[in-house]
Design brief:
Blueprint (H helix, E strand, L loop, with lengths): L8 H7 L32 H7 L1 H9 L3 H13 L5 H17 L3 H12 L6 H17 L3 H15 L5 H10 L3 H17 L6 H13 L3 H14 L3 H12 L9 H11 L5 H13 L3 H13 L9 H21 L3 H7 L4 H12 L3 H14 L5 H14 L3 H9 L7 H12 L15
Helix pairs in contact: 2-4, 4-5, 5-6, 6-7, 7-8, 8-9, 9-10, 10-11, 11-12, 12-13, 13-14, 14-15, 14-23, 15-16, 16-17, 18-19, 19-20, 20-21, 21-22, 21-23, 22-23
Protein name: Tetratricopeptide repeat protein
Pfam families: TPR_6 (PF13174)
Keywords: Signal
C-alpha cells in the first residue's frame, strides 16, 4: 500500500487562503484639542507602530519578491514591541504562516498555525480548514501522533469523518498496529453491513497490518476481501498459496487448488502449469493435463529455459494419453457404473467437464455422488460445485458450494470458488502494493 501522502502544505495553504496576508485596520489614536486621553483602539486592530512594519501590501510585495529576510526582520521587530494585544499576535502569526510556507519552514508554520487556531479569532469555516491544514502538515512531516491529535480535533469540532483514513494510517505508520487493525476491522464490518465494497486502500492496509504483526488470520481476511472486491492475479496467487500453508490444510486438494488458480488468473508460472499437469495425470485426467500444458506453452512460460526438454516430454505424454482418453471415454461409463462406489463416475464426469461437455459431466458426477461409497463425499460435492461454476451455472454452483464443509482446505476452496463466481464484471484488477 502506498503511503497515503497529503498534498504539499504550500498547496493546502493557498487553497484555503493562508498564503495571503490579512487585511489590517490601524488603530486610531485620536486626541481632542484638550489633549484628552487617547481614544480606545478598535478591538480588532493593530497599533500604528506595528502596522508600519507589517502593512499588508508591503508584506505581500516582499513575499512575491521572495525577500523573505526582510519579512522575517519586520516580524521580529513587531514581536519585540511590548504589550501586544491578542489580535496583534493573531495578525503576526498569520503572517508567519505565509512566511513559513514560502520558506518551507515547517516549525514556523506549525507553531503559527497552532497559535492562530487557538486564538479564538477565526470564523468557524476558517477554524475547520486551519485545523485540517495543521493535521496535514504533521502527517506529511511524519509526526503522526500530532497528526492524530489534530485530525481527531477536526472530527470533534466539525462532526466530519473525512480525516478518519488519515487517522488510521497515522496509527499504522507510528507502529500502533493494534489500533490500526481495530479501526480497519470496524470499517470493513460497516462496509459489509451496508453491502458496499470496502475501500481498496483500507484492505491493503489491513493486509499489511497482519503481515507486520505476523497475524495470519488478519492477513488472510484482508486478502480474501481483496480477491472478492478487487481481484487480480497477485491477490489470487497469494491467497491460494497461503491457504495451502495452513497447518490444517490437506495436500489431497493440491490439484483442486490449481484448478481454481487456472480459472482465476490470467497466467500461472511455469512450475505451476507443470505441477498441475503432473497431478492431473496422476489423478487420471490426461485431458486436463494437456490443457494445462497447452496454456503454459501458449503463455510462453513453458518450453524454454533449463526445463524446456522436460516440459516438451511431459506435453508429449499428456497429448498421447489425452488422445486415448478422448477416443475411449464413452466406453468408460459402463465400467464406472459397475463399480462398487461412485468414484469412477465422478472422475469420468469431471473429464467431460474439462472437455466442455458440462451437462453430461455434471450428470455423471451427480450420479457418482448418489451411488455413494465415496472415501470423501464432501470432496465430491466440492468438485460438483466448481463444475457448475465452470459451466457458468452460477446459482447451482453457489448453492452446492455453500453446503461444503471442512477445515482441511475444502471449506476454504468452496468459499473461494463462490468468490470467483461472484467476481466483479471484467475482473476489476487492482495493483498489488506494499506499505511504505
Amino acid at each position: 500500500m502506498p503511503q497515503f501522502r497529503i498534498a504539499r502544505i504550500s498547496l493546502l495553504l493557498a487553497a484555503i487562503g493562508l498564503s495571503a496576508v490579512p487585511a489590517l485596520t490601524p488603530a486610531a489614536l485620536a486626541q481632542d484639542k484638550a489633549a484628552a486621553p487617547a481614544a480606545e483602539a478598535p478591538k480588532d486592530s493593530v497599533r500604528p507602530e506595528i502596522y508600519k512594519l507589517v502593512e499588508p501590501a508591503q508584506i505581500k510585495a516582499l513575499l512575491e519578491a521572495k525577500n523573505h529576510a526582510e519579512v522575517q526582520s519586520r516580524l521580529d521587530q513587531a514581536e519585540a514591541l511590548p504589550n501586544k494585544t491578542p489580535y496583534e499576535n493573531f495578525v503576526l502569526n498569520r503572517m508567519r504562516i505565509s512566511l513559513g510556507s514560502a520558506t518551507n519552514n515547517t516549525q514556523m508554520t506549525t507553531t503559527a498555525l497552532e497559535a492562530v487556531i487557538n486564538s479564538g479569532k477565526l470564523q468557524p469555516s476558517e477554524q475547520r480548514d486551519f485545523i485540517a491544514a495543521l493535521g496535514n502538515m504533521y502527517y506529511n512531516a511524519k509526526e503522526y501522533q500530532k497528526a492524530i491529535t489534530w485530525f481527531n480535533r477536526y472530527q470533534t469540532e466539525t462532526g466530519d469523518n473525512k480525516m478518519r483514513p488519515y487517522i488510521i494510517r497515522a496509527h499504522y505508520f507510528s507502529n500502533d498496529f493494534a489500533t490500526a487493525k481495530t479501526e480497519l476491522l470496524k470499517d470493513l464490518e460497516a462496509a459489509q453491513k451496508a453491502n458496499t465494497a470496502p475501500k481498496l486502500e483500507e484492505l491493503q492496509l489491513l493486509a499489511n497490518t497482519g503481515a507486520k504483526t505476523k497475524d495470519q488470520a488478519t492477513y488472510l481476511l484482508a486478502v480474501e476481501n481483496l480477491v472478492r472486491y478487487y481481484p487480480n492475479d497477485d491477490y489470487w496467487i497469494d491467497l491460494l498459496s497461503r491457504t495451502q500453508g495452513k497447518a490444517t490444510y490437506s495436500t489431497r486438494f493440491a490439484l483442486d487448488v490449481y484448478r481454481l488458480q487456472k480459472a482465476a488468473v490470467s497466467k500461472m508460472s511455469a512450475e505451476d502449469y507443470a505441477e498441475m499437469a503432473d497431478l492431473a495425470l496422476l489423478a487420471g485426467q490426461p485431458i486436463e493435463a494437456k490443457q494445462a500444458l497447452d496454456a503454459g506453452f501458449t503463455a510462453g512460460v513453458l518450453g524454454k529455459g533449463p526445463n524446456a526438454d522436460k516440459h516438451k516430454k511431459l506435453r508429449a505424454q499428456a497429448d498421447r494419453q489425452a488422445a486415448d482418453d478422448m477416443k475411449n471415454i464413452g466406453s468408460g461409463e459402463a465400467s464406472a457404473r459397475k463399480s462398487k462406489n461412485g468414484t469412477g463416475l465422478i472422475n469420468l464426469g469431471y473429464a467431460y467437464v474439462t472437455m466442455g461437455q458440462h451437462d453430461k459431466g455434471i450428470a455423471l458426477i451427480q450420479e457418482g455422488i448418489a451411488k455413494g461409497g465415496l472415501p470423501n463425499a464432501e470432496d465430491a460435492k466440492l468438485r460438483l460445485g466448481y463444475s457448475y461454476a465452470l459451466a457458468g451455472k452460477k446459482d447451482d454452483a453457489i448453492k452446492t458450494l455453500q453446503s461444503v464443509q471442512g477445515t482441511d482446505g475444502r471449506g476454504d476452496l468452496a468459499r473461494y470458488w463462490i468468490m470467483w463466481v461472484n467476481r466483479p464484471a471484467g475482473g476489476a484488477a487492482a495493483p498489488a502494493q506494499a506499505a511504505q
